[in-house]
Design goal:
heterodimer, A: 142 residues, mainly alpha, 0% strand, rod-shaped, B: 202 residues, alpha/beta, 5 helices, 7 strands, 35% helix, elongated, disordered C terminus
Chain lengths: 142, 202
Amino acid sequence: MIAALKGLAFAALLLTQQPMSAADSAELDRKTREVATELRCPVCQGESIQESPAELSQEMKAIVREQLAAGKTPDEVKAYFVGRYGEWILLRPTTSGVNALLYWLPPVLLIAGAVLVIVIARRWTKAGADATTPPVTPDNVS
Amino acid sequence: MNWKRAAIAIAAIIPLVALLGFGMTRNPKEIPSPLPGRVAPEFALAVMPEAALPDGSEPALTDTVRLSERRGRIQVVNYYASWCLACRDEHPVLSALAPAYQSRGVDFSGVVYKDSPPAMRRWIAEMGGQTYPALLDPTSRTAIDYGLYGVPETFFIAADGKVAKKHIGPVTREVIVATLDSLLAVTPAVARPAAAADTVVR
């Protein structure tokens, strides 16, 4: 009885599953490439799993495709890998949390440095001008 | 005043120097794993048969080790391969310690990483045998689930199912003993028999 029910359930599953159209398949391939380009190959030097021919990268890419086909969003797929390998696995780290410092600190320091240089330059120019200006005496007052 | 300017400059430079100094103490090759403290990813892996069939073909895989079935016992999961030279350093240590800890509620497993059963069996025989099961992960799915970079890597999983430690590189007797003893100290006495699939590959 249980075997018959299992058979029926399997048949129902096969009937409800539609084969993927060529357009859907191409779209899935495009999404897979997009996500794979953003994930670092763990056994390579600065290569994405999209570019890397390493076996591990190919396995990871297969997981990306499977998860996207199962309805996960690209962010959810990336979160799966971040949960296993940490943020390091992302070729473009997120801009939130401590990472935000890495993004914003250099321009902030650059601007602060430029302001400092301008302020010091102005002081030096002023000091130089003061030194060259003749002292005010009754003779040169008009 | 000049001393005031000097004090401001020093106050600005000290944090930068401290940051650089801290950076120098870090190993850039060591990437922290997010897994410790989290529930270990579930796996169900076939146990590698002890020997090939007389005609040289591979026997059917009949035994499976499921992590969920081992909840309540501490797990040592070691990823290794016959082509891995560093694995030669740690294998005798793991094989010697596994039986001693078995009765104390610790299971050891070796997960074969990117290797074939015949090559692995030859290697195990060359290494003098193995006292814990060798598990097969032909598609590396479990390896990816555990965030593996290469071999050897060893995961210590506490009795509550959470990853307690990830060790990259050959694991030493000192690391195994210290980690297991600290885990056993906080684990309630476990007297559960070993899983049925705990076969010994010799």
